Amino acid sequence: MIVAFSVTPLGVGEDVGEYVADAVRVVRESGLPHRTDAMFTSIEGEWDQVMDVVKRAVAAVEARAPRVSLVLKADIRPGVTDGLTSKVETVERYLAG
User: Pairing state of beta strands 41-44 and 67-75?
Assistant: First the structure.
């Protein structure tokens, strides 16, 4: 399963990078495959593993912000591994062809 999620602190002003870094740190320390871009962090693993990381990432932000917004999108496809890489490689192959 791949989950793309965004954790946003509310009520802390416009500069939220420090808070988002707390969430990304949790993802990086999880050891699961992941990627972070300007809008989302994607993480890949089994349901319980991924959801535990998302929960802990939200908690890290919640510890410092009065309110937290979570946006989450999941690709639940049993038996598929390395989707973070293979999905992008497939698109790149079509673009090159």
Answer: unpaired
Using only C-alpha atoms, what is the Rg of the chain? 15
Q: pTM for the full model?
A: 0.91
* CA–CA distance, 97 with 93 (Å, rounded to integer): 6
Q: Rounded to the nearest 5°, which phi and psi values hold at 6?
A: -135, 130
pLDDT tens digits for 82-91? 889 988 999 9
CB 6 within 8 A of CB 41: yes
Rounded distance between C-alpha atoms, residue 85 and residue 52, angstroms: 22
Report d(CA 52, CA 30) in Å as an integer.
Answer: 10
